[in-house]
Amino acid sequence: MRQIPLVIAHRGASAAYPEHSRSAYEKALTDGADGLECDVRLSRDGHLVLIHDRTLDRTSDQRGPVSQRSLAQLRDVDFGGEPILTLDDLIELARGADRPVRLLVETKHPNRYGKAVELRLLALLRKHGLDRPREDAPVQVTVMSFSPLAVRRVRALAPALPRVQLMDLIPPGLKPSRLPFGARIAGPGLELVRRRPDLVRRLKAQGNDIYVWTVNELRDVDLVVSLGVDAVITDRPGEVRSYLGV
Ligand code: G3P
Ligand code: CA
């Protein structure tokens, strides 16, 4: 029997609502998503805010780098009719769900600001008692990064936290069967999976889990399910869940 993958909402149910917005995450929970994905960056005053890009330009009514605004200033920016969320806000939202929720946190700009992002992240998780996995926790946190350096930092700060090594290309020097720095979950992009399904098979055969992003077309759901992936990260969690029959 084929394994049914977890369905993770990419920036919330972001096909239906502004990405990273409260509406997008509430919709993802209503749709029954197993987990919520988010990107985090630091505000000027050191708060972790949910935004993908380095600047405000694409997703808001203002322009310029996120890192040059304080949280109070960012709270005044209009993101498609909604205010910015902090990671703290999202954790509170997830805690209020009627079931345990997975939270996949991707750290952005890990190379530019030293380990400030990971330090703030772990401090916040510690505050919520989420810095080590517990079966009875209302929120199960996994940290993700394209940067092996960031994955290594998370291992040093919180060895028990699950970590995803994201990859859009095969990282130079990666032995296809071994992830760097003790990550046990590989996060290949869909394009990489299409080009190199053998990589997925080999990583799985070595005991790694596979979380694929961003799977929005149903024919691609068929492909990744046939490869036995463990999670699909999608902008359309409701549609993907219906298609999977869950
Ligand atoms: O979930 C991983 C995926 O989000 C990575 O790509 O650019 O959407 O952050 P990106
Ligand atoms: Ca992301």
From TrEMBL:
<dbReference type="Pfam" id="PF03009">
    <property type="entry name" value="GDPD"/>
</dbReference>
<feature type="domain" description="GP-PDE">
    <location>
        <begin position="5"/>
        <end position="244"/>
    </location>
</feature>
<protein>
    <submittedName>
        <fullName>Glycerophosphodiester phosphodiesterase</fullName>
    </submittedName>
</protein>
<dbReference type="InterPro" id="IPR030395">
    <property type="entry name" value="GP_PDE_dom"/>
</dbReference>
<dbReference type="InterPro" id="IPR017946">
    <property type="entry name" value="PLC-like_Pdiesterase_TIM-brl"/>
</dbReference>
